[in-house]
Design goal:
about 110 residues, alpha+beta, 3 helices, about 50% helix, about 15% strand
């Protein structure tokens, strides 16, 4: 059963810098998963900033970060792994470009 809440909770909304730090944690988590497959993930600060900026625009706090990491990083990397464009011992690079985020083996 839930106890009654008799207090008001005041919090400050997340700032863009906070979202960038949360994004770094999600990217590190993805990097750890890839390491188990023998693949090294390298991402630029621009990638972190772009994902955080998109989440900040959604005005939903940190919740969209996971979705953007999956959409912009995990999905292209998984596609490369399935199509044998990326194998154990290789690196994958995520970079911010004018068109968004580019993920390339190499």
């Amino acid at each position: 059963l839930l106890a009654r809440l008799d207090q008001t909770i005041v919090y400050s909304p997340l700032r863009l810098k906070d979202l960038e730090q949360i994004t770094v944690l999600h990217i590190k988590e993805l990097g750890g998963l890839l390491e188990k497959k023998g693949v090294e993930l390298q991402s630029t600060k621009g990638v972190q900033q772009e994902i955080a900026r998109r989440a900040f625009e959604d005005d939903k706090g940190a919740r969209p970060i996971r979705k953007y990491v999956q959409e912009l990083l995990e999905d292209p990397i998984a596609h490369s792994l399935v199509n044998n464009e990326l194998a154990a011992g290789q690196k994958v690079q995520a970079k911010k470009t004018a068109k968004g985020i580019t993920v390339l083996p190499g």
